[in-house]
Amino acid sequence: xxxxxxxxxxxxxxxxxxxxxxxxxxxxxxxxxxxxxxxxxxxxxxxxxxxxxxxxxxxxxxxxxxxxxxxxxxxxxxxxx
Length: 81
Known about the structure:
The chain is mostly helical. The N and C termini lie far apart (37 Å). It has helices at residues 2-12, 18-28, 32-39, 43-51, 58-80. Helix 2 packs across helix 5 and helix 3 (32-39) crosses helix 4. The radius of gyration is 13 Å and the shape is globular.
């Protein structure tokens, strides 16, 4: 059970490569401002995370990773429809 929690936490904190982060956002039709607002940070911070020049702290990294996965799933669902 503890191993499952650890694996889930690690997965949640894993981010795709920077180029993929941008493509996910663009495919979803989201702006940097949208991403920043969703995560409680400014667009400039979201841009730095997207570029990979700054790595978000664990709390935000989990939120950002979750957001990217949801945006990717939403874009894929839209394409499939």
